[in-house]
Amino acid sequence: MTVRNFEPQFMKLGVLTAALQELTPRSVRDPDPDRAIEDWLYFGREVGADVLQLSAALHPSQSDVPAEAMLDPVANTLDLRAPFDAKRRDRVEVAVKESKVGISDIAYFDNLLHDDRAIRGKKLDFMRKVFDAAALLGAPAVCGFVGRDQTKSMDQNLEAFEAIFVPLLKDAKARGIRYRVEQCPMPGWTTGDNFHNNIAYSPGAWIALHRICERHGVGDQLRVHYDPSHSILMGQDTRSIFQFLKDSGYAFLIDGFHVKGQVISAKGVSEWGYGGQTMNRGDWANGKPSDKPADQVNAWKKQTVLCEHELPGTARHDPLAYLQNRSVDWLDHQLAARELLELDFKTAPLIVEHEYGPARTQDKEKLKPILAGSLAFTRKIDEAAACMFALQSEVLPAQGIPVQGRGREAYRS
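Structure (tokenized):
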């Protein structure tokens, strides 16, 4: 008989800085761009974060998508109108040291396969600037989307990925970083009928993209930043996704998490089905897509009639909803990750992403207790899962002691 020590491994907990776009007023941060990062590092400490995922975005004066057309406006906490150089890095590192809050990675979410060559080039150039900043800061990865060329079929988009994304990943490789894809299908990105507007939306797609990358020597650069809210939106559950990846030999693909939930509306599903509202949304006018951003945002009714984002801890405990894949079972999410994925839990980030509409506020003092509560909830859930895994999968088996009960199983929800 072997006695194994009880040694649970807890994840580093962080927050995506888009949770509060205006923590530093634009009148302050535009002339002093790194002030926004400093302010967020100290705010991160106040709400209990170990790390930050820095949000980067094209400056509003440079973006091709107005904020009014976005369901969840982005934040340029990391302002890259001017190059992020060693001097800027040194200033940020002073704040990292003083705040004791690290930087897990940088996030820039955009359509990198855009069909307009000039627009796409602008986005790709910006992403390379993000790569440069990540390398200077010593961050191991950048998080973002792949996107979709709306003029092409999905199979043709695989060819576009090979032509456009592989060179981008070679640039990431040259800088010693990875590209973590978030799997949001981005249904509201277009006023057309397409729902899957980010082709990296599911395990089957991840594997297809990774095989392309492997052929070109950049397989190690492509990873997934998994967000369970998008799985719920598409009728999937986390445990089954993780099991599928393991069964397929791709359990290594997931490299980090966005901790964001989704609460499905049974009434919305009854009215429209999965896929959301397909007509009379208000994003068209006079027989064509409206040119008004306030109308274009209605394309997101493909999603919002079905569900509402959850900030972890804000949704009621609902075992029936967990079994129906209509809400995220956070404890099982963290258990399944430990049981099925090939992940270094000491380094992989667990990033709270705040997109729960009724709790979105630009008032720091109002948001502070909300974020603090959500991060505390997330930390305790992860600690509970880590303790269960260490006890049930390491300590008890070493002594030949059986684990009680049955537990959740993949492919049975």
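The chain has 14 helices and twelve strands. The first helix runs from residue 26 to 29.
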